[in-house]
Amino acid sequence: MNGTKKIVTALVASAVALSLFAGCQQKTSPYLVVDGKEVAVPYVLKIGDEKISMEEYRYYYLNTKAQAEMYMGSDIWETVPEMADNLKATSESMIRQSRAIRKLAADNNVSLDDEDQKTIDERLASNKESAGGEEGYQEALTSMYLTEPLLREFIGDDILLTKTEEALYGPGGSEEITDQDVTDYILGNYVRAKHVLINKSETGDAAENAAAKQKAQNVLAQAKNGADFDELIKQYGQDPGTEVYPDGYVFTKGEMVEEFETAAFELAENGISDVVETTYGYHVLLRLPITDEYIAENKDTYRQSMMDEKITPLLEEVYDSLTVETWEKYDTITPETVK
């Protein structure tokens, strides 16, 4: 269950976004139709002692189905029959992830209180007002396979996850992440670098690439001789991102192309690289220290990243411990029968 928290958080976020359209009336038409007949579904899955309703399962199933068809075409279920099993497995996994959040919260004595319920009510009220009326709610409710009770649960899961992280890693938590922890995390895992990029030929022309490389060598010589690096960027640089990030890029491993990343991490602070070739072109890098000001401005974002990293293995452990049973007619659930 790699990336459990990120997946669940994404699902919660999408559900919260859909709350702009979620109405109060519930769907009364059938969710499962087999051979033209409505089928009553007492439950789809049992996770532990909890029975998972068709209403909830359908939300994940049909939204996942829609995404698959958007990327692979509506005939994917005929051309690649095993995709139907993958669709079920994905739906099961997402529901199981939500239960992992709830169990981890309960295991840490975290629950939704009256203030949390008030927060949920306020979010729903605000979203309903923004949606512009009941008719719009109902249309989107139908198109997105969402009901208001489900939406309440999704928002509740989001709150539970945040509260569990705070209970574990917030002030006074059993594994509190301090400001010094955040600083050490940033300095130990991130680098800051500016660069001058000379683009390669868009057509792959060898002569143009050779000229670009020679220009980069010229930039390198000037940088090594003490030229102002910002002036070199201004005069020669062809990366539009330098205008957005005039203080340089701050990044960790896996966020940049490999050659650029390797060069940046190998440099000492204030060191200048040799010419580095990537698919984009030829770079001359200057590694700079990460400033206290940057850390102060971004510590909350990095603290959240640390929380995400720490809570993921806990969620995985709980996820793996959950037992799942399926309804006796589970094989009747197919891309054609779920409505």
Architecture overview:
- Keywords: Isomerase, Rotamase, Signal.
- InterPro entries: PPIase_dom_sf, PPIase_PpiC, PrsA_foldase, Trigger_fact/SurA_dom_sf.
- GO terms for molecular function: peptidyl-prolyl cis-trans isomerase activity.
- It comes from uncultured Anaerotruncus sp.
- With 339 residues, this protein is an alpha+beta fold.
- The chain folds into 2 domains: 4-177 and 311-332, no CATH class; 183-290, Roll (Chitinase A, domain 3).
- It contains 13 helices and 9 strands.
- The strands form 3 sheets. Strands 6-5-8-7 form a 4-stranded antiparallel sheet, sandwiched between helices.
- A hairpin with a 3-residue loop joins β7 and β8 (281-288).
- It is extended and about 80 Å long.
- The two termini are 28 Å apart.
- Residues 2-28 have low confidence and may be disordered.
